[in-house]
Amino acid sequence: MIQKVHATGKTIEEAVENGLKELGCSRDDVEVKILEVPYKGFLGVFGSKEAEVELERKDQTEEVTKQFLQSLFEAMSLDVTIDMKIKSDQMDIELSGPNMGVVIGKRGQTLDSIQYLTSLVVNKQRDKYMKVHMDTENYRQKREETLVRLAHKMAKNVKATRRKMVLEPMNPYERRIIHAALQSEPKIQTFSEGEEPYRKVAIALKK
């Protein structure tokens, strides 16, 4: 999608209208910079210049994202406060409210799904990809700590029984946590098995 155009016209208003047609948007959606004011020249003929303007789309990422989430939570009959911060190429979204357990879902599956859908909305019309990180009640950190404890517990069982153990299906982010937690174990190896969305982490003794 074109983000910025230069346009000309006999007047500034005409130049702006020409630019809006090229961008395919309304006046409220752009920032306008006047590059050249029109000049009729000598006798209205010699040395005349057309108006030239630069139109650039406003970044409406935050507004569009908040509208999407508000509509989603309204459909779920949930009262959710949305705190959003954008830093460079990442959007951090913190959700709060009285029923965050519903938003989190079993093992964070609902939260992950909402984060995924939000990422699609955020990046639908962007040229540069923006990462979306969504959290509520510090769930992400708590989940990571739980997975790290699980990884070490399972590794201990593998060393005791000398048998491979396979964990429950996890998303790529959670599988990376397991792999990272055990990468310094000298006698343990981890690898993923199966196909998405049922891909699992296996923990076994190194051969």
Order of helices and strands: EHEEHEEHHEHEHEE
Determine Rg (CA atoms, Å): 27 Å
Using the coordinates above, name the CATH class of the largest domain. Alpha Beta
Low-confidence stretches: none
User: How many beta-strand runs?
Assistant: 9
| CATH H-level homologous superfamily name of the largest domain | K homology (KH) domain
Shape: elongated
N→C terminal distance:
52 Å
Placed side by side, the strands forming the largest sheet appear as: 1-3-2
- Strand proportion, as a percent range, falls in 25-35%
Query: Helicity level, as a percent range?
Result: 25-40%
Number of self-contained structural domains: 3
Q: In this structure, how is the largest beta sheet organized?
A: 3 strands, antiparallel
Just name the CATH architecture of the largest domain. Answer: 2-Layer Sandwich
- Give the helix/strand class: alpha+beta
Overall mean confidence score, pLDDT: 91
Pfam family, one: Jag_N
Organism: Tindallia californiensis
GO molecular function: RNA binding
Subcellular location: Cytoplasm
What would you say this structure looks like, in words?
This protein is an alpha+beta fold. It folds into three domains: 4-57, Defensin A-like (2-Layer Sandwich), CATH 3.30.30; 61-137, GMP Synthetase, Chain A, domain 3 (2-Layer Sandwich); 141-205, R3H-like domain (Ribosomal Protein S8, Chain: A, domain 1, 2-Layer Sandwich), CATH 3.30.1370. Helix content is 39%, strand content 26%. A hairpin with a 6-residue loop joins strand 8 and strand 9. Helix 5 (139-161) crosses helix 6. The mean pLDDT is 91. Keywords: Cell shape, Cell wall biogenesis/degradation, Chaperone, Cytoplasm, RNA-binding.
